[in-house]
Amino acid sequence: MEFQDVVRRRRMVRRFTDEPVTPETVDRLVHNAVRAPSAGFSQGWSFLVLTEPEDRERFWTAATPGSSQRDMSAWLAGMRTAPVLVVALCSKDAYLGRYAEADKGWTDRDEARWPVPYWHVDAGMASLLMLQTAVDEGLGACFFGIGAGEMPAFREAFGVPDAWVQTGVVAVGHPADGGAKGSPARRRRKPLEDVVHRGRW
């Protein structure tokens, strides 16, 4: 598929068929993810791949929000049909350690040196590559997060070390009709001239 077609066709898919995703495709997703850029080539990311039904059920049991003001039932009903979940995690410690090495010139691990948390930025870019790979494979995908209240249960369910925090989850599968409508169904895309500033703001 042409790259511009991949970019144009990428959207968040929220319901999937029961057709499986091949192991080769799952491997391609993560192989492409680790081609993302990372500050200082820190590569402070990890990917928890869940393809077995019992592992996915354990994920949803741990990560599903409890009672809230927002009705998530339609979203959950669709998302739980995804045959592949890839949790993208990152390690702040890996970045602080990398930039304290001699070739980077910092002699300490002061987090205040970082204007933004690049550990999450880099894991986000890796996640985007997985979203684009899914489109290139003729699949659908959706990026979503695990709520702060659900993080302890998620960590316990999968033995995630304290040094690793989730940036988000990529759900992948063959697109099905239906599923919860996303914000693009309710909001227009901003015109390019409203968001691109050339030369100065």
Automatic annotation (TrEMBL):
The record's section on SUPFAM superfamilies has: FMN-dependent nitroreductase-like
Nitroreductase domain segment(s): 7-174
Q: Which Gene Ontology MF annotations are present?
A: oxidoreductase activity
* Chain ranges passing through the membrane: none
Annotated protein name in UniProt: Nitroreductase
